[in-house]
Design a protein that fits this description.
431 residues, alpha/beta, 3 domains, eleven-stranded mixed beta sheet, 13 helices, 24 strands
Length: 431
């Protein structure tokens, strides 16, 4: 059964069931399916021909340009329904970049069995197009939904653009299960909390950066939250404890994945607390191995054009119980005059210091050592930066001291909720 056929089935079986809530606007499965059938492809899209014959719709990529979550979702589904190959552009992309992307797609072409395209988050450079068959997602939905406890009664809150793989995959997986998505375009955590309370949401899907914002602004208990699903950014014990206080009935589920490979490993909050630094054990049908500290993943649920065993050059090792201990991307290291400092490990240490709410480490050039690093911090109320620096100098060798520790009110985030380190570097260089 295809994704579109699944939606049609829900429309026929339970047309009045709410599929999507965007702020205070509700859309039933009936509304959503009808919207998919009635879209005007040319309204907010750009068609890129990727084959010599223009007669075949299947050889046309549909670049969807909209900042509306609803339009992104409906146009993506509508393009699938009509046989186009949809790809949602990131909101930050300007006309010039979309033009260049079109030329790249037209010249490089698309693998023959592709059903849709996804864009990388672009945290290490320009976003690049990746191509997928529909079954690389839909055949994994039942597996991931079972792990994440998602079913027809589920209400998941998430915030972000449909253009990011984590968001789009979760949205379609919830619709596949017949559940309900709750979202907003607002970046205000107080607005998120309003929606959580109003609709008694039982799942939150968010990266730790957004969970920290939620914790900072939430002044009440959220006992109806049963699960928090989070990607494997820097976690710390204090954040887990704060989330447990706010959501006393929740189970925390951490996952590790990649746009190229889908979900790879997962663990519960308790498992993470027992093995800080782990990203869990493999999802069913996924295998992981490690060679020279590089992680290799074997899965059939990957993008087109790569082998079943593949690496995205993430580093780590597998412990005796089969848990993957993650240490970051290859090259995510500061070479300070020959002394190697792992950025993820340093961020984890700094995040663990009492009074530190959020932290990000950036690499800078150094005339003497070649490389050094700067730490940006968001501190909790009444915490003095001088005391934090004093602790670092007391607990770490001098070669691991940051060149500077800078306090800011909030870390800048990219559209996909990761810390915008390029912006931090710009701030530092201007300063």
């Amino acid at each position: 059964m295809t994704i579109i056929e699944r939606l049609q089935q829900y429309k026929e079986l339970d047309p009045h069931k709410v599929a999507l809530i965007v702020d205070d606007k509700k859309y039933t499965y009936d509304d959503l399916y009808d919207a998919v059938l009635s879209i005007d492809i040319n309204h907010i899209s750009r068609i890129v021909n990727v084959a010599k014959t223009r007669e075949s719709v299947k050889n046309q990529v549909l670049l969807i340009q909209s900042q509306s979550f609803l339009e992104q979702l409906v146009y993506w589904l509508g393009a699938l329904y009509r046989g186009y190959i949809p790809m949602v552009c990131h909101n930050e992309m300007d006309i010039d970049y979309i033009e260049k992307l079109s030329l790249v797609i037209a010249s490089e072409g698309v693998p023959p069995l592709s059903d849709f395209g996804v864009l990388t988050s672009g945290t290490t450079g320009r976003p690049k197009p990746l191509w997928r068959k529909e079954e690389s997602w839909r055949e994994f939905f039942d597996i991931q939904n079972n792990i994440f406890r998602i079913n027809e009664d589920t209400k998941v809150f998430l915030q972000g653009s449909f253009s990011f793989t984590g968001v789009s995959n979760m949205v379609i997986a919830v619709l596949w299960a017949g559940g309900t998505i709750v979202t907003t375009s607002s970046l205000r955590p107080t607005r998120w909390i309003e929606l959580l309370e109003r609709y008694k949401v039982d799942h939150i899907y968010a990266l730790p950066t957004k969970l920290r914002l939620l914790v900072r602004h939430c002044k009440c208990k959220l006992p109806f939250i049963n699960y928090i699903i989070a990607g494997s950014q820097v976690l710390d014990r204090h954040l887990m404890e704060q989330l447990q206080q706010i959501c006393p009935n929740m189970e925390f589920i951490l996952y590790y994945g990649a746009s190229e490979l889908n979900y790879i490993t997962y663990c519960t909050g308790k498992e993470w607390l027992d093995r800080e630094g782990t990203v869990g054990r493999p999802f069913p049908s996924v295998k992981i191995t490690e060679a020279d500290d590089v992680i290799y993943v074997t899965t059939k649920y990957h993008i087109e054009g790569i082998s079943d065993t593949y690496t995205v050059n993430d580093c780590g090792y597998i412990d005796k119980d089969g848990y993957l201990m993650f240490s970051g991307r290859q090259g995510d290291v500061i070479n300070k005059g020959g002394y190697k400092i792992s950025i993820p490990e340093m961020e984890l240490y700094l995040q663990s210091l009492q009074g530190v709410s959020e932290v990000a480490v950036i690499t800078i050039n150094d005339d003497i050592r070649g490389e050094d690093f700067v730490a940006y911090m968001v501190l909790e109320d009444n915490t003095e930066l001088s005391k934090i620096i004093e602790i670092i100098h007391h607990e770490r060798p001098s070669v691991e001291w940051p060149k500077a520790v800078l306090e800011i009110p909030m870390l800048p985030l990219t559209e996909c909720s990761k810390v915008d380190k390029r912006k931090l570097k710009e701030w530092y260089n201007k300063g």
